[in-house]
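Quick one - inputs below.
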Amino acid sequence: MLAIKVDSIVEEIEMGLYRDPYLIGWMTVTAPASDLGAVGAKPLGILIAETLAGDSDGHFISELQRGIKEAGETYGMPILGGDTNFSRSMQMTGCALGIISGGKLMTRRGCKPGDHIYSSGCLGLGSAYALLAYSDMANAKHLNYRPLARLKEGELLRGFASACMDTSDGFLATLDQLMRLNGTGFDVSTPPDQTVHKAALDLACSSGIPSWLMLCGPHGEFELVFTIPPQRDDEFLKAARSICWAPLYLGRVIETCNIMLDTGGGAMRVPSGAVRNLFSEVGGDVKRYISALLEIHATRR
Amino acid sequence: MLAIKVDSIVEEIEMGLYRDPYLIGWMTVTAPASDLGAVGAKPLGILIAETLAGDSDGHFISELQRGIKEAGETYGMPILGGDTNFSRSMQMTGCALGIISGGKLMTRRGCKPGDHIYSSGCLGLGSAYALLAYSDMANAKHLNYRPLARLKEGELLRGFASACMDTSDGFLATLDQLMRLNGTGFDVSTPPDQTVHKAALDLACSSGIPSWLMLCGPHGEFELVFTIPPQRDDEFLKAARSICWAPLYLGRVIETCNIMLDTGGGAMRVPSGAVRNLFSEVGGDVKRYISALLEIHATRR
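Output:
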């Protein structure tokens, strides 16, 4: 079966979140590749539609192409075709193809109460990068934000996971979406000091904001969040070890449609629908966004 | 074999050439579908990446979706997936999939001197639409510019054509590209009153410009231009009739790398490389563009 995913990088460029042309190229491949990972497809290749700003110089374009090329090589995804256009607004679109050969499909639906929740790696680097990039791009570069699409992990997961989705829009938006699609809730009991990426923890600490807020932002890190039925858990973890992968245990699927999160000082029911839309509701104003998140944090009992 | 093509509608929107949301939706599907036609692929479906302007209203968006939906239904191409983003610049990308089952491939390369040149239908409606749209959009609408991707014709052609390409960038750019790729020239001996679309002929007449200039513009009509080896000609024309299709005979492939065109008063060697880039060289200024074309016309012996 053919899997095909299209993904555009638009707002990230327009809002100045991605300025480094290498990163833009890298993400043009990584974003749709990550979608292939989330359905456990084996990558075949990618097509790229580039809309370049008329004033892009040669260095910018060669760095952009280098980002595309190196990501394609990393994932084993040759560039199969493309289209180039010019506009006042740069935009990039990747259309990734993969093959799902035999076995059952892995989708965003199918988890049941009692299933274990995992992520493929630490979370929150997307939020940390965005938080820094909007205030201090020079420092944001030191984070080395360069997500890796979780392709080999996704292929393995297809034999085990009851539901899977990538955190391209941030961890909390991912859980919120899975909750809506599955009619189940999620109790994330692992505390943030174990789930949040080290660099994001450091940034939260130096910025004086609670670390769990790094799980809330709408810019993600392209990890996979997935659920495993408890009876498959041992077998899954053994298979993961065999590819030198240590998934991060987060908690359990629950019956009630709530997102419960260990916020570092006890569990909290997080209003994920509201949090998910907060950044656009404050018009992309980072200060107002942080204030609004801190207000939500203050409601914690 | 899988055929997959990505195509973006960017400049046409930004320059105001496409304003009707239905037409934008229609073209988002038609442009990559036409690329499938040019390789003789049987369509499977399409993915759409939409970047909407933040201020698009409900009517605009529903007309856009109607254009996408009706084109998809026309071509038998279900919408398989997509992505939606927002920007100050609207842009649309379609990624079309098709199947080429057995037989030889049809590409832009392979024509030989002596091959007959055809187009799938009348030419120049793309130029006529653009010429009107840049000066008088209300009148441009009366042209009913709504190209049809030539999918069933492309499937038939795969058994006959030695080279094939669509006129998405206009007829002359298509010939110029085929000339570069094949190392052959083209002698288009059929006069413009038989090759140029009726509406484009009328517009040329009322604007006082020679009709053959309607073959020169960089905005096309999505016909197929293709070549048939003379020994296959009878069989090809019989097959075309069987699907109620009357291809338009244009002339012959020649050895020297020239584009010879009957301009309505004798043959002319057209500087296709220069003509192809003329519109961007005059910065998209329609008046200067027409003047420059008329200067080229004046060099006719």
